[in-house]
Amino acid sequence: MFRGRFVSVTRIAFVIVTVVFVVLAGRELSASIRMASISIVAERIERGETVADDVVTKYALRSVDVVDGHYCRSDIVAAGVTLVLAQLDRQNVNVNYDAWAVAASSARQYLRYALSCMPTNSNFWLRLAAVQSTIAEEPVAIAGMMKRSVVLAPYDQVMVLTRFYFWNDFTDATLTAAKRALDSDLTTMLKLGDRCRVNATIKEISPQLRPIFDQTWTSVGEAATARFRQRCSK
């Protein structure tokens, strides 16, 4: 009798687990279908293909569906990030301030949602810092975001070189507030970075970053920096 009850309980548990997996699989499939167009357009942008402004605008607006639908799947969230940033990049604050302000606010809001899903994504912290810097000068807040980006990907060459682009554009106040993280990035880049890629990246250095960069260049020493004088093939 007890064996029969055990078999019944096992069957019930199996059915419940099966139903749960079916429901989850169905939700994932539904999410893929609903968000497929967003992913396709985002992939085209990431590949460097030409995507019309009206198409970018249309699908960037659909990023709201990602938030409202509570989708936290990495590929869907990342596609939304690509679209809202592409939409912001295509706005000109001097030509249409209102459109730029809406795009900037939407990008910031979406990136915050993306980070609620993936708080360890270094690139998302970097992008949020960059968007915030275009909206308002908040050195301490921006520095905090950059610090997180550095901590989460301290030796990833792609991230280090990408961050340099934004370090190069930040104000003195932000650079000062994030000095330790900035020093870490510059030191890593000069000591460990690919010679040719680093040379291409540091070709133009902003006036506000130059003194900090020169100080780091000196501190890492001749043994580390001598290689940058070698020629790189085109």
What key phrases describe this protein's structure?
234 residues, mainly alpha, 13 helices
Report on the architecture of this protein.
It is a single chain. By secondary structure, this protein is an all-alpha fold. The protein has helices at 2-46, 53-61, 63-68, 74-89, 97-117, 122-135, 139-152, 157-167, 172-177, 179-192, 195-201, 210-220, 222-225. Helix 8 (157-167) packs across helix 10 (179-192). The longest helix has 45 residues, at 2-46. It is globular and about 60 Å long.
What's this, in brief?
It is built from 13 helices and no strands. The protein is mainly alpha-helical and 234 residues long.
Topology of helices and strands:
Blueprint: H1 2-46, H2 53-61, H3 63-68, H4 74-89, H5 97-117, H6 122-135, H7 139-152, H8 157-167, H9 172-177, H10 179-192, H11 195-201, H12 210-220, H13 222-225
